[in-house]
Amino acid sequence: MNDTTTGREHAAPTQTGIAGLDHILRGGLPAYRLYLVEGTPGTGKTTLALNFLLEGRKRGETGLYITLSETADELHSVAHSHGWSLDDIDLFELVAENEFSIENEQSLLHPSEVELGETVAGIIEQVERIDPARVVLDSLSELRLLSQSALRYRRQILALKHFFAKRDCTVLMLDDRTSEPGDLQLHSIAHGVVSLEQSASAFGSERRRLRVIKMRGLKYRGGYHDFTIEQGGLCVYPRLIASEHHAEFDPAPVSTGLAGLDRLLGNGLVPGTNTLITGPAGVGKTTTAVKCLVAALERGARAAYYLFDERLATLLQRSAALGMDLRPYLENGQLTLRQIDPAELSPGEFSGSVQEAVETDGASMVVIDSLNAYMHSMPSDNFLVLQMHELLSYLSQQGIISLMILGQHGVLGDLRSELDISYLADTVMLMRFFEAEGTVRKSVSVIKTRTSDHERTIREFDINASGLTIGEPLTGFAGVLSGNPNYIPGNDKLLKDA
């Protein structure tokens, strides 16, 4: 008995077949235990369970799916929608007899006509006959209805737990939360509990998230983790924890591709820092970010660009017209350019995409254009700031140069943004319009850096067919600190044909 117990304690974790969930569980579920997977209908419990059994099949383990509510056809239909086959996985159905032909070889029980004890006995009989390594029981709501009392229900579940405890199998029990609110009987019985949730927003697709409520003897990654149901199963996006990710990198500054902008920044962009580019619409924030991006690509670096506001085709066309054609870098794989629909993307999926770009694709620069649209993918501003803080900390520890674009309301005068994230930024670049000699011109200044002694001047810049040009420092501004600077014509050398 002691040898068996010792062997179980040192058994390798049972992987679920869902990489993100296994990461949350630090390798998988502790083997030979009974677990509860709970969630309302439509949250993905059946898909998770099939992932679990198919992973076992891939590893040569026998799997058994015991269903009290769905038919074999329904399960095969779910599997087919994901491109799966359930061959070599035993299905044991406890449903009405008239749903099957007499040729069916499955054991049939009538839950509406038999006692709960007989139903449980039928489950035990099938497990003893097949001797599976992985078992799914779907779902406990039918057993709860048959029990007619909480005491009887708990005793039968305990009987199942003790039965499985004597066998070398890992068990998932699915529950659709039809019990009374606050009923935690199953939580106390199960070795671990995974809760699945979904919520509908006022606009856009539903959001799904999971949480490991309990896992005895395992230091799992707590909190909520976003997930989606894709063709091929559940895709879980573990909550990004920056402290778990460190990498060695060269902190030497790199050029933006513009000598004047490098001088404003002190000596260029520093790896492991993030730069916030802020200003009104049309001032040139995206063009400046693309210029920095192209400079990195020309050095042979890889980069990822996340486009929230603009159409992908428009960005490519406009960049090419300014002499910054991104298509060659897309074709050779140096650049990952993804157009994001905030209404369809969860925060966890976005951070997972950034993490993949860094760790899998080797991106050394990440551009987020813009934070205004990204904000609408979050349930509240507080969550956005926390999410962005963790993401920026992760990118910093990986030595990534991050560029974030933030649009401000208005064009002239008092400019404001619905989101203040400047305190998270290592560098803040402010772009403004100003008037001189009867012409609307553009200016750029760096108002904050944490890495170098930056230039504290205001420079004019211009965007034309030849690209982006940075002028000499301007000294004719008054009222800069008031937030409404005015330009006083003097001896400054303004850019020609601005």
From TrEMBL:
<keyword id="KW-0418">Kinase</keyword>
<keyword id="KW-0808">Transferase</keyword>
<dbReference type="InterPro" id="IPR027417">
    <property type="entry name" value="P-loop_NTPase"/>
</dbReference>
<protein>
    <recommendedName>
        <fullName>non-specific serine/threonine protein kinase</fullName>
        <ecNumber>2.7.11.1</ecNumber>
    </recommendedName>
</protein>
<feature type="domain" description="RecA family profile 1">
    <location>
        <begin position="250"/>
        <end position="409"/>
    </location>
</feature>
<dbReference type="InterPro" id="IPR020588">
    <property type="entry name" value="RecA_ATP-bd"/>
</dbReference>
<keyword id="KW-0238">DNA-binding</keyword>
<feature type="domain" description="KaiC">
    <location>
        <begin position="12"/>
        <end position="250"/>
    </location>
</feature>
<dbReference type="InterPro" id="IPR051347">
    <property type="entry name" value="Circadian_clock_KaiC-rel"/>
</dbReference>
<feature type="domain" description="KaiC">
    <location>
        <begin position="252"/>
        <end position="484"/>
    </location>
</feature>
<keyword id="KW-0234">DNA repair</keyword>
<dbReference type="InterPro" id="IPR003593">
    <property type="entry name" value="AAA+_ATPase"/>
</dbReference>
<dbReference type="InterPro" id="IPR014774">
    <property type="entry name" value="KaiC-like_dom"/>
</dbReference>
<dbReference type="InterPro" id="IPR030665">
    <property type="entry name" value="KaiC"/>
</dbReference>
<keyword id="KW-0378">Hydrolase</keyword>
<keyword id="KW-0227">DNA damage</keyword>
<keyword id="KW-0597">Phosphoprotein</keyword>
<keyword id="KW-0677">Repeat</keyword>
<dbReference type="InterPro" id="IPR010624">
    <property type="entry name" value="KaiC_dom"/>
</dbReference>
<dbReference type="Pfam" id="PF06745">
    <property type="entry name" value="ATPase"/>
</dbReference>
